[in-house]
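I trust your eye. Have a critical look at both lines of this record:
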Amino acid sequence: MPTDIDALVLSNNRLSESYNVIKLSAPDIARTTKPGQFVMVRKNHDSTALLRRPFSVFETLFDNQEEPVGFSILNKRVGAVTNSLFDLVAGDRLQCLGPLGQPFTIPPKLSSAWMIAGGVGLAPFASLAQSLKKYSVPTHLIYGGRSSDDLYYVDWFERMGVRVVLTTEDGSRGNKGLVTVSLQRELKTQGENELKIYACGPTLMMREVATIGIEHGYATEVSLEPVMGCGLGGCYSCVVSIKGDSEHESSDHFVRSCLHGPVFPGNKVNWDLLT
């Protein structure tokens, strides 16, 4: 069951004029959160927001005894709520409900993992990188943005032992082009049967990653980002169309992303109804 708490803000690291990372003290949530899950948050006494907003759990925070004591969220200023989160200071409190949703899965004997992130789609991958390191899985991150100004936390991932491949549309950092082009190029050198791809970012990017996964025969999971009103399945604002399974589901059907996702197998999403 999710926990509803007033989490203490430990720090607010402003990465730029648009992006920041907020670290929160929330042991009850941190102990039960798995990579890919999310929380619903709202600043206390914020009259601009009637509803909480969903944020992927970014990084799990640990104390000196390696016990989980909190988590962070990656925020991008795009509206009133995200602007209020950008202005937080240590000592403030956030209403947090979580963990919610279905997490990424890490198969046994996974030979390597590839995380594909576009822009703020980096959000679910810090905690996933932490788990993959725990299981000693060689991990790669292909991370892209419009320009170098959209790329953050690269040093953090490299310290975690993740091999990072950067791409920018304008060529200002890393490879010039799209992350999907870099993924195609990188997969040509791979031969592992137990390689898995994880993706989060713009819908068209995730659709292409899912297609690449099918073409190469690799399992792919995507973290969708539909609008969520409640995070608990009550408002039906986040429905997505999923392909039926011939053994269990006779036809395509709609599910609530907050309950059945936000992580889905890439080959199960009806992308035509999302793009």
Notes: The domain at 3-100 is CATH 2.40.30.10 (Elongation Factor Tu (Ef-tu); domain 3).
